[in-house]
Amino acid sequence: MSVHATAASLPVTPAGLPSAHWDEALLRRYDKSGPRYTSYPTALAFHEGFTADNVIQALEQSNASRRPLSLYVHVPFCRKICFYCACNKIATKNTALAEPYLSRLDREMVLTARHLDTSRPVKQLHWGGGTPTFLSLAQMGDLIDRLDARFGLSNAPDRDYAIEIDPREADVFTLRHLQSLGFNRLSLGVQDLDPRVQKAINRHQPRVLTETLMDEAHRLGFRSLNLDLIYGLPFQTEKSFAETLAQVIELSPARLSVFNYAHLPTRFKPQRRINVDDLPGADEKLSILRTTIEMLTAAGYVHIGMDHFAKPEDSLALAQANGTLQRNFQGYSSHAKCDLIGLGVSAISHIGDSYAQNPVDLASYENALDQGRLATVKGLRLSKDDLIRADVIERLMCDMRLDLAAISQRWQIDAADYFSLALEQLHPAEQDGLIIRQGDTLNATPMGRLLIRQLAMAFDACLPEQSGKRYSKMV
Description:
Number of strands: 19
CATH topology of the largest domain: pyruvate-formate lyase- activating enzyme
CATH architecture of the largest domain: Alpha-Beta Horseshoe
Subunit structure: Monomer.
Number of helices: 19
Main location: cytoplasm
Oligomer: single chain
Helix content: 25-40%
Pathway: Porphyrin-containing compound metabolism; protoporphyrin-IX biosynthesis; protoporphyrinogen-IX from coproporphyrinogen-III (AdoMet route): step 1/1
Shape: globular
CATH class of the largest domain: Alpha Beta
Strand order of the largest sheet: 9-10-8-7-6-5-4-1-13
Protein name: Coproporphyrinogen-III oxidase
Domain Radical SAM core: 63-299
Structural class: alpha/beta
């Protein structure tokens, strides 16, 4: 029996999406473009009037809050470009080129820490890219030493220290080194295990590379492993992706991110190497999505929301169950609110009621730091209305439900009246069975969970000003 046939016959648990709930026509009708709401307002609302001086003010004001810290470090280097990639990256095989960048990162840390009470615990640390494991073992150790010297890293058991890994350029020695540096969570890029798909996206990665790393990570006791997959890539079919999923389920990662590929070759140059005729059509993509949800749910994974899945005992699923799940620029997070300090080119900070973003180009980032100032190019200070809407959108995206009475109490407003226009906009979705309203509570149905971004858009007051801006499709 083929993997595809097996997937079709798998039973689906109540947390999944049984056939009776799958409405392809409805998905098509609501499959519009929209924000992913890793922040509200989104980065499109950031403006150049928000400067480094505003960041300094936000840092100093945040000290009184005593909120824990979260550090994000962007490492933009990659040895080889994957054609699907939409990340901010620099292609090179010379690790020596990272040295000047590490020096600039340290300068940024010094300038930031000068205004920050660094006795606050660093509960979260995330290295993204690019490919953080582009760095040599010595460079990774040096970067951790610098972060510890400037901010004071934690060895608390409940810390969440994560790094994104390319299995093609990491080995068991890399993992042992990362463990010694304090990392306790790994995210491995896989995308697809089909050799034909891998060739089309310029990413040759046999299963054994991923499997070897996962085996070693489990042996070393890493707390949580995440695998990234992408659907909608060239030559993918429902059958081929089901075969990849079956292998991934055997590997048994604690978390899975299954992203929808957005083909935007005018914005991302590497995507021009992908032949649009090789991409699966809309019908095939929906079939892939349905099979993904069915297979992962049947395998015991909880569908957290959108493209995230986790085992019931994983901290992500536990946080959702107890209502403490959060959204940040890396997606869903299990930790309570932190002040996020973004370091590196293109990095975004979220400090108190302010967002701040660094330049996306390396030269501008370096020039600012060489002049002795923070590299902020744009940002935003949130109004009270922004903060209320951010709370509502985050709770809807994380809990898949909204308690208007709790919002009323938290913000001292009449939430039903305050959001009367948004609730009116949700009437069609309610009639279509995407959301169920019972008094002051709104609950997303199984189909509504797939379109949670669409439901959240009703509460977004910035969207009218962003008409014509290109967002990714819902599914």
